[in-house]
Structures are given as structure tokens and as C-alpha cells.
Amino acid sequence: MWMEQQRSPSGSSQGPRSPSAQPYLSVSVTDPVKLGNGVQAYISYRVVTKTNLPEYQGPEKIVIRRYSDFVWLHDRLFENYKGIFIPPLPEKSAVEKFRFSAEFIEMRRQALDLFVNRIASHHELRQSEDLRTFLQVDEEVMERLRSYETGIFKKPGDLMQIFKDVQSKVSDVVLGKEKPVEESHPEYEKMKHYIFELENHLAEAQKQAYRLVKRHRELGNSLSDFGKAVKLLGACEENALGKAFSELGAKSELVAVKLQKEAHELLMHFEEPLKDYVRAVQSIKATIGERATAFRQQCELAETIKLKEINLDKLMLTRSDKVREAEIEYRELKAESEEAIRRFETIVRRMNEEMVRFQEKKTTDMGVAFHEFAKGQSRLANGIADAWRSLLPKLEACSV
Amino acid sequence: MMGSENQGFEEAHLYASKEEMESLVLGDASISYSNSDYRSAMSNSLSDTHHPLSPPILPTPADSDPLLAPPPPYPELRNPSSHDNSSYIEPPSYSDVIFSPFDGDTSSEINGVDSPSPSSDSPISFSRSSSSNAEYIKITVSNPQKELEVTNSIVPGSNTYVTYLITTRTNIPEFGASEFSVRRRFRDVVTLSDRLAESYRGFFIPPRPDKSVVESQVMQKQEFVEQRRVALEKYLRRLAAHPFIKKSDELKVFLQVQGKLPLPTSTDVASRMLDGAVKLPKQLLSESVVAPHEVVQPAKGGRDLLRLFKELKQSVANDWGGSKPHVVEEDKEFLEKKARMHDMELQLSNASQQAESLVKAQQDMGETMGELGLAFIKLTKFENEEAVFNSQRSRAADMKNLATAAVKASRFYRELNLHTVKHLDTLHEYLGLMLAVHGAFSDRTSALLTVQTLLSDLSSFKSRAEKLEAASSKIFGGDKSRIRKIEELRETISVTEDAKNVAIREYERIKENNWTELERLDKERHADFLNMLKGFVVNQVGYAEKIANVWGKVAEETSAYARESS
User: Fold this and answer.
1) Among A17, A144, B176, B404, whose CB has the most other CB atoms within 10 angstroms?
2) For chain B, percent helix, then strand, then coil, each to nearest 5?
3) DSSP secondary-structure letter at B78?
4) Is B356 near chain A, with CB under 8 Å?
């Protein structure tokens, strides 16, 4: 489990250790099982948590979760930890008939496992209550939480936020501000540009990687068919030549098998990490959006406060009885504004830290992926060379 | 095949087409996905990781990479890495691929793996006759030119036709010279082919290129002309590879005699039938017989309609009639061989198809690998330009290694594919030869039919003669008219007997030829297929090793990451 932060040397399934032991939290997503029927069918996963952290109920806990539960966790973290690049989820759903193929299920399981592990190793995210909920509550509670979030019962706070957003957009237009206010921080601009460009480049690389997987499969298939055809042709020939043909055909089929194997490896250890990279970048884009929102809110509140100040002064001058009310309002607004500023600055701070981590992580991730890719290709090519080479002495013998 | 000829085919427009793709700038050199540019670009900008790319395996003239500058008819081999995502490369169809870079001496040693002598001169015989035969004949077809037909036609501008320069180099003494050229048009080739078919009944005569039924406008298009040139060259080389035909008068005359081809031209079917129809009434009224000398040719190609009908009737009688004809195809071994040939044809066709798919798949693999490399080159450039953190620069360096390897591997796949196409082309060649085998077998069948028809004629003449004699002997003193008829009949019988004997000799001769050819085919096919298999395997091994090498290096360079991951 490469994402484990700390590995306890003597296995992880022991009882709670003495307080001086290293704290650990290890999670794995396993055992995909298809449940339900027809259109409503879905995959459930076992989520196993092993930990000695006091916040958790005991050293080991196993729960059953489905994809939408992971979505719930993701959305909660996204809401509550703005500025942090929340680890990305695998895509929602594939083409219907592909949805339950063994390959797809395995890829999804891996991605979900990675997702949870990344959360568990993030110094801030791992402390989230939502994570604890996700890892521990039983299935009925989880179901309630999940439908509460994704259903029509939106939290009142969400509704307010949506309303406010609309409101502020309207006021923007009214005040003649067609464009929402944006930061103009040159370094940040550069970073945004970088992220958007990066996504394009990565998407292209991922596309080619996927194509390469397909090519391996196609080459494997055509070698297999070729092998069969060659064998049949050999049956028309006599003696040594016929034998040579049939051996070549057999080798061809063997090489085809190697190619199919490598195609799978390529998919799992090269194409998938690239896809993961793309998802990570998309997650950053979402965070960029959050930052923009926070910035805008901060600006708007600052504007509003100014107006309120002016108003308050006016009221004070005229000794209106509305002064008291206005003062209270003003103070509330001030608090809100400070809150907004704090939120924004948290986001900025987090993003800066996250960026450093992101770049480092991705260098490692890609390094591993490249290594696997090169190893796989080298292994394949060597295997192919060996297979064909073994034929040569036999072919030589034929021409004698 | 002229390497220099290909210069005429604009490389420029091919380069232009692949440059829909953005050119990248790594350092100062611009990287466009072309081998020659790429090499210089790589050495310019990637000096810190200078991998001298392995020396070109194909000693191509500097600019004509086989993939970049094939003649226009073969867009299949156009540079594959345009960024037009809908671009689709057709698989090279065997007869279309020109291996111009392989002409001349290409048996170079590459990294210890001997590339098999890839001469495509005469694809079959060269590799076989390399050892023993001092005999050598090489034919080249080149320089197509338009010429005007000299006719009394009122229509202006019609009747232009194309001639080709046919150059022969040989040391065969019968030719009397070592190098000579003539100009011939396609019609001459048809004549040659028809005359050979007559003279070499029973032999496996290589089939000539198809007459194309296209508009005269198309006929003059460069693409069409080039396709035909290639086909003609292949055809003539196959003829020259045939042990008997290469010494034939027909071929000699075709290759050497200047000016008009001194071979009798074939008349078209319509005028033959017309001639035959004119003669038919007379034949029906009189006792028309087939003269012995006519019998050596099949009824089908001639003007004797009566004979044609008779043989047709005979063949129907053979198939449906109650009684067996007097002479039948008894040679069991022949029938077995025939069945085997039929089976082989099926399997060859299948294998040829699968080989084509294989070639396409290999090509695609190479292309996609190249495009992957390209995508990573762009990423490298991007990360380097935008780098804020060292981790980015480090990643860029890793990506560059991967990209370089991918591009190299891509090149290897595509080179491998060129070799593969050449080797597996043998399958296609032999499939084409099956046509010749059919021809030879049908020569045999029609000769037999002629014999059978004559025999049944004979038997009907004889029985008629008997009847007449029996009738006339009843009349004392004889019946003058009947006696005359009997004499005529006896004359007819005698001529027909002669014809029958000639026909039987011809049939036996053709059977002999069939046999000889079958043995030759078996031997040559055995050698050629073995060469094909060896060549194919050797190439697969060689290139797989190269590719393994390339990736092995990258695996090493990234091995630090292996230790980090659990």
C-alpha cells in the first residue's frame, strides 16, 4: 500500500498500542461485488480500515460502500476544505455494457482505493470527520447521508448560497460590472494558465496511451489469426516445410498472448496513471473556481461594507433612530467580511502548499508510471525476441 | 525500380501534408516528425542525452526516407504522425509497395543481426539462384512516355498511348548482347502473353497484368501509369525467372527487337467469331474436318466455330452423358495434385489476407507509438518552459527520456514493417502464381477434350462408313454415288486419324509439361517459403532486440522510482 504514511513494523492488525506507538491509518478498498438487478445493479466494495487513532472505533473496521458513497465523501471534503486539491474520483459511469466488465471494475476499484488512501495520507484531510464517518458508519446511516446530500433535500445553507450567487451576479450586472471580479496576481495568473494548458497536453498523452493499448490488442489479434492461417498453410505442405509453418504459426500465437498481457499491464500501469493525472488537474481547476468564488465574495463584502459605512456615517450625522440597527448590521457585516477574507486567505495558503506537493507527487507518480511502461515494453520485446529466436535453429535445419 | 525516378515524385507535397501538425521547438531546432529532420533536431537540442540514433538500416539516398517520399500512388506510406486525428493509413497492398531503397546493395549488418538479402529484383529467383547459376537477367521498366497513334482518325487528340522503356541486362548468351533497350506499349505485352500461352501450353506461365477498363483520361494519369509500370516490371521479371520462358523466342523478340513487335497480334473475340460464323455454313454442308495442325491449339481461341461447338458438346457429354469417353483423365496422382493445389490456393489466400492485417497492425503500432512520443515531447517542452519547481524540471527530463525512446521504437516498428511486407509478399506472389497453375491445368483439360472429340468423331465416321458399305454391298455392281461417298468418308477418316494422333501427342506433351512444372513449383516454393519464414523471423528477432534495448535503457534511467514504489 504505497500510500501508507507510516507502516507499523510488526503488522497492522494488532490491538491498540501504547500511546507512544506511531499513529497509523491504513485503508483499502477491495472485493467488488455486483449487487442488485437490471438497471439498478451496482457494485459494492469492501472498505477496510486499520488504525490506532483514538478517534476511530477500534483497530479494524470493515464497511460496505458503493460509488455514490465515495462521491459523497468527495463532495463533503470539497465543501469543507476549500483550497486543498481534493483527490479525484474515477469517472462517474461508462458506456452501459462496459460498466460491469472485469477490467472496468478493477480499474475503478484501484482508483477508489487510491482516492481513499490519498485522503488518509493528507495531513489535513485525514483528520476530517467526514472521512471518519465514511470509514465507520454502518450502511443504513451511510445511505441516509448519501441520499440527503444528493437528493432534492438540499441543505438550507446550500440554498442560501445559490441564492446569494444569483443575487451577486445580478448586482454585478446592475452595477455595470459585466465581468465578475478576478484576482490579478501575476504568479497566480501564470499558475492558472499552466493548469489549463497542462490539461490539454495531458489529455493528448492519455489519449495516445489508450490508443497504444488498443494497438497492442490489435497486433495480438492479427498475430493470432496469422498464426492460425500459417498453420493451415503448413498442412498443405509436406515434411520439413510443413513443420516449419506449423511451428511458426504456434510461435505467432504465443507472441499474440504476450501482447495481450502487455496491453493489460499498459492499461493498468501507464494509461490509468495518466488518466489519474488528468483528473488531478481537473480537481485543481475546481479549486481554482472555488478560489475565484471566495475572492469575489470577499470583494463584494468589502464593497458592501464600504456602502454600509457611508450609510452609517450618514445616519449618525442625522441622529436617526436607525443608527442602532445600522450599527448592529455593520458589525455583523464586518464579521462576515473578515470571515470571507480569512476563508480566501486560507484558500490561497492551502493552494500554495498543495501546488508544491502536487508537483512533487506527480513527478514521482509519473516516474513510476514511466518505469513500469519501459519495463513492460522491454519485457515484451525481449519475450518476443526470445520466442522468435527459438525458431531459428529449426528453420535452419529445414533447408539442409 | 529506379531510386532516382522517385525524385520526380514530389517529396515536397508529401512533407507539406504531414505538417498540419505543429512543429515543436526544443531549443532552437524545430522538431517535425520526419526522420531526417528529427535526427538533426534531436542531435541539436538533446545534446545532453545524445543518443546517436542507430545508423539508418536502409541506405536511402539522403532525403528519401521510404516513409516520407514514396511515389504518390502510395499514400499508405506517408508520414503517419499528422495530428489530424481522423487520418487513417491504408495498409500497403503488396503489389503497390515499391522498395526503392532496397535496390542495390542492402545486405548490411545491423548490430550483428544480418538483414536478409532484401533484393527485390526478381523477388523469387534471385534469392534462390544466388549460389549456383551464373545466368543473370535483370529487366527494368521505366520512363513512361506518351505517344501519338498514327491513324487516319478524324477525331483529333484521340489515340495517344503510353510506351515504357524496357531495359535488359543479361549474360545469357542467346541474347547476343549484354545490355539493350526497347520501347513497348501495353498492347505489346498482351500480345507477348497470348503468344506465350500458345507456345507454352501446360506450363505455369506467370499471369500478365490486367487490362484496365478505364477512361482514356485516367489512363494517362501519373498514378495509373506508375501502377502499370510497376506491374509490368514485376511481370517481365517473373517471365525472366521462368527457366523455359526466359529462353523463349517470344520473350527475346519482345525484349530486343526495335520498332514494331514482330509477333502476330491476337485478334479480338468479336472478329474471330465473325470469321468463324462466315465459315460455318460451308463446314456444316461439307464434311469439314479438323486439320492435324489445327489440333495443337485449343478450340476456344480459334476461329473454327464448328470445332468449338463439337468440343462443347463433347464436354457436356462427358459431364452428363451415360457413356464414358474413350480417354479419361486417369492419372490419379495428377488428380491428387490438382486437389492439393486447390487446397493450397485457399490457404494461401487466407494467409495472404491475414498477412495484410498483420502488416497493418504493425504499422498502426509504430504510428501510435510515435504519436505518444510526440505528445510527451510537447509535454516536456511545456513543463520546461513553465517550470516553477524543480520537481517539474525533473519530470520534464523523465518525459524526455520516455519520448525519445517512444519515437525510436516507433521508427523500428515501421522499419520492421517494411521488411515484413517484403517477406510476406511471397505469399501473395504464390497466390498469383495459382492463376498460372489454373491455366496450365486447363490447357490439359482442353487438349484432352480435343482428343475426346476427335475420337468420338472418328467413331461416328467409322460407323457411318460401315453402314454405307453394308448398304452398297447389297447392290450388285455398286452404287456410284455411294462408292464416292465411301471414298470421301475414308479420306475424312484418314485425316481425322492423323489429327487424333497429333492431338494425343499434344495431350501427352502437355501432361509432361504439367508434371515438370509441378515439380519445379514444389521445389521453388519450398525454397521461397523457407526463405520467407526465415526472413520474417530474423527480422522479428532483430527489431525486437533493438526495441528491447531502447526500453531497457529507459527502465534503467527510471529505476530510482522502482525502489520508491512498494
Assistant:
1) B404
2) 65, 5, 30
3) S
4) no
CB contact (8 A) between residue A241 and residue B399 = no
Supply the pTM of this predicted model.
0.76
pLDDT at residue A331 is higher than 60: yes
Verify whether the Cβ–Cβ distance A237 to B565 is below 8 Å. no
* Closest CB from B353, B545, B554 relative to A370: B554
Q: Does B365 touch chain A (CB under 8 A)?
A: yes
Cα nearest neighbour of B354 on chain A: A226
The span from the CA of B239 to the CA of B207, in Å, is 9
Query: For residue B144, which phi and psi values (nearest 5 degrees)?
Result: -65, 140
Place of cell 501495353: B186
Tell me the average confidence (pLDDT) per consecutive run of 10 residues in chain B, 566 residues long: 40 38 37 38 38 37 38 38 38 33 34 38 43 74 82 64 89 86 90 89 88 68 84 91 89 88 74 76 72 74 76 76 61 83 93 95 96 96 92 93 96 95 92 90 88 87 85 71 83 88 90 90 91 94 96 93 67
CB A241 within 8 A of CB B352: no
In chain B, which residues have their Cβ closer than 8 Å to the Cβ of A392? 534, 537-538, 541
Q: Counting Cβ atoms within 10 Å, is residue B462 exposed (0-12), middle (13-18) or buried (19+)?
A: middle
Q: Is A376 left (phi over 0), alpha (psi -120 to 50) or beta?
A: alpha
Partner-chain residue, chosen from B344, B351, B564, that has the shortest CB–CB distance to A230: B351
Give the list of residues 6+ apart from residue B246 with CB closer than 8 angstroms, or none. Answer: B137, B172, B239, B240
B545 at interface of A, judged by CB pairs closer than 8 A: yes
Average pLDDT for chain A: 86
A397 touches chain B (CB under 8 A): no
Comparing A7-11, A211-215, A355-359, B526-530, the range with the smallest average pLDDT is A7-11
pLDDT at A187 over 60: yes
Q: Which residue has the cell 486543498?
A: A84
Q: Find residues 226-285 of chain A whose CB sits inside 8 Å of chain B.
A: 226, 228-230, 232-233, 235-237, 241, 244-245, 248
Of residues A12 and B534, more confidence is placed in: B534
So what's the pLDDT on residue B103?
33
Q: How far apart are CA B554 and CA A375, in angstroms?
A: 8
Mean pLDDT (whole number) for A178-187: 75
**Interface list for A 133-162 with B (CB within 8 A):** none
What pLDDT does B368 receive?
Answer: 97
- Please state the ipTM of this predicted complex: 0.85
Q: Do B347 and A245 touch (CB under 8 A)?
A: no
* Residues composing chain A: 400
Give B217: exposed, middle or buried? Use CB within 10 Å, 0-12, 13-18, 19+: exposed
Touching check for B435 and chain A: CB below 8 Å?
no
Unique residue bearing C-alpha cell 510461435 = A251
Which of A210, A225, A271, A371 is the best mutation test for B, with the most CBs of B within 10 A? Answer: A371
Contacts of residue A388 in chain B, CB cutoff 8 Å?
A: 537, 540-541, 544
The candidate with the shortest Cα–Cα distance to B253, out of B162, B184, B171, is B184
**DSSP string computed for B115-161:** PP----SSTTHHHHHTSS----EEEEEEEEEEEE-----SSTT--EE
**Cα A207 from Cα B374, distance rounded (Å):** 12
Rounded to whole angstroms, the Cα distance separating B178 from B187 reads 26
Judging contacts by C-beta atoms under 8 Å, the chain A residues touching residue B391 are 359-360, 362-363
Residue-level pLDDT at A288? 94
Of A219, A359, A362, the CB nearest to B365: A219
Question: Which band of pLDDT confidence, cut at 50, 70 and 90, is reported for residue A315?
Answer: confident
Nearest CB to A2 within list B355, B540, B565: B565
